[in-house]
């Protein structure tokens, strides 16, 4: 529900054309849409600056479609669903042709125009090529949240000279997302090179002792570099949202 719609209801109540109970009922009904299998939070965009995001895993194509249609109708910002399979995406796009699908990040989205500040840049670094799907989830999330985003992939500590080649961008960024599996060392290295906030994303990439990302997670949590925060394993979406919130602070 937009600010203008809320003001319209309040004006009607003030003028006496609707009762207090009717105004309250309208505001309550407009903020949450009951769909039987989901309660869509249309007020989230006003509270948090971005519409509710759909988590696609575990939902049917029909459910993803219904929620996306509801959000697209009532939201001003971009609409997105994460962790969507290609099959579900194809089903939704048949009914909702304006939706686009990114196969690498597995994000299904409807992009709405937004003004981005080129001086406020989020930088995303990945340790290896295998980390790109998670890094792309972070990139597209941050982009849809209205940020200028730059990426450099495959610049991990196994060839650390590749990282130093991007020193200018590391210095220019306002927030840095570091995506790494294996031992997760890249986050500590970047944290020691910059005074900007670093968001570390451990990935489930690595051989047996990597324990599907647990080793990288614990290494990042134990980082000796100050100013490094850590999100959950493979949570590119969470990193993208957090980076966006930091980047939009004035």
TrEMBL record:
The UniProt entry, under SMART domains, shows: AIRC
InterPro entries in the record, alphabetically?
A: P2CMN_synthase_LarB (IPR039476), PurE_dom (IPR000031)
- Molecular functions per Gene Ontology: hydrolase activity
User: At the top level of its lineage, which domain of life is listed?
Assistant: Bacteria
Report the Pfam families cross-referenced here. AIRC
Q: Which residues form the PurE domain?
A: 120-249
Gene Ontology BP term (one): 'de novo' IMP biosynthetic process
Q: What is this protein called?
A: PurE domain-containing protein
The organism encoding this protein is Mitsuokella multacida DSM 20544
């Amino acid at each position: 529900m937009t600010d203008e719609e809320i003001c319209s209801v309040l004006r009607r109540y003030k003028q006496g054309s609707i009762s207090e109970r009717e105004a309250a009922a309208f505001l309550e009904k407009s903020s949450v849409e009951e769909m039987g299998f989901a309660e869509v939070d249309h007020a989230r965009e006003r509270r948090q600056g971005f519409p509710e995001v759909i988590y696609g895993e575990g939902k049917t194509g029909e459910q993803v479609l219904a929620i996306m249609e509801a959000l697209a109708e009532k939201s001003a910002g971009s609409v997105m669903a994460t962790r969507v399979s290609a099959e579900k995406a194809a089903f939704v796009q048949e009914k909702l042709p304006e939706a686009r699908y990114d196969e690498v990040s597995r994000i299904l989205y409807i992009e709405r125009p937004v003004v981005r500040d080129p001086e406020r840049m989020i930088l995303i670094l990945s340790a290896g090529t295998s980390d790109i799907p998670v890094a792309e989830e972070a990139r597209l999330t941050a982009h849809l949240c209205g940020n200028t985003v730059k990426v450099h992939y495959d610049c991990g500590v196994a060839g650390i000279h590749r990282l130093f080649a991007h020193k200018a961008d590391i210095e220019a960024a306002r927030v840095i997302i570091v995506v790494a599996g294996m031992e997760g060392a890249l986050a500590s290295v970047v944290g020691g090179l910059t005074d900007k906030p670093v968001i570390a994303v451990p990935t489930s990439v690595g051989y047996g002792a990597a324990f599907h990302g647990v080793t990288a997670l614990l290494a990042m949590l134990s980082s000796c570099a100050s100013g490094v925060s850590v999100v959950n394993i493979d949570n590119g979406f969470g990193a993208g949202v957090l980076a966006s919130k930091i980047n939009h602070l004035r």
